[in-house]
Design goal:
Number of helices: 10
CATH superfamily of the largest domain: Glutaredoxin
Order of helices and strands: HHHEEHEHHHHHEEH
Largest sheet: 5 strands, mixed
Structural class: alpha+beta
Number of domains: 2
CATH class of the largest domain: Alpha Beta
Strand content: 5-15%
């Protein structure tokens, strides 16, 4: 701002006018600076996703029944209302052929989100991740009554004693901690966040936005 004031003074503009004009110029430039800062942060996140894509895709859970290389990863929280609002769009995008995987990022502000993430991962170890994922996203009984074994049974998990042992074990917590670390490495600060090799989408997304994310320039 000092340089702007000096420039105005050299052109014979009084100090009060200088200060007023300089302040206005500074304030008007703020949206541009903020936009540029956000753009640089998005580039950094996309670059980090590209570098860590193998780790991300290996440690996330596919939402499609047909195995294929992941195109988009949803970083999400089962108790997040915005994540639940995106669920139908995610399902539509998957049905249309977009390969989306799920990375757990339960937020501390949601008291049952970590338990839900652990339940989903343990169901996944039994081959029923997609079914448990759909149940957790589509129902809310578990938010007031966290009977994860009941939810696992409803999702079709057969070996319930093994599921129960998993939810109390250390292996699933190690996996969840790694998923959280991956999300942190991408600079994720809210859910849902959708990531591809080419870009990042924050917040509720449409099926079209998810399909386009893989091809974003």
């Amino acid at each position: 701002m000092r340089k702007i004031i000096d420039l105005f003074r050299r052109h014979g503009i009084d100090i009060l006018t200088c200060a007023t004009l300089a302040s206005a110029a500074f304030l008007l430039s703020r949206p541009i600076r903020d936009k540029w800062t956000k753009h640089r942060a998005e580039i950094a996140r996309a670059g980090s996703a590209n570098r860590n894509w193998q780790d991300i895709s290996t440690n996330s859970s596919p939402l499609a029944a047909t195995p294929a290389p992941m195109q988009v990863v949803e970083i999400s929280d089962y108790e997040c209302p915005f994540c639940r609002r995106s669920s139908a769009a995610v399902d539509s995008a998957v049905s249309a052929g977009t390969q989306i995987a799920y990375l757990n990022y339960p937020l501390p502000s949601h008291p049952h989100a970590e338990g839900a993430a652990i339940a989903a991962l343990c169901a996944g170890f039994s081959g029923r991740f997609r079914e448990m994922h759909a149940r957790l996203m589509g129902t809310n009984t578990w938010e007031s009554d966290t009977n994860w074994t009941r939810e696992a049974k409803a999702a079709g998990v057969v070996d319930l004693p093994a599921f129960d042992a998993c939810t109390h074990g250390s292996a699933v917590r190690t996996r969840l901690a790694h998923e959280r670390a991956l999300a942190d490495s991408l600079g994720v600060y809210a859910t849902p966040t959708f990531v591809s090799r080419q870009g990042v989408h924050h917040g509720v997304a449409s099926a079209a936005e998810l399909a386009a994310l893989e091809h974003r320039e």
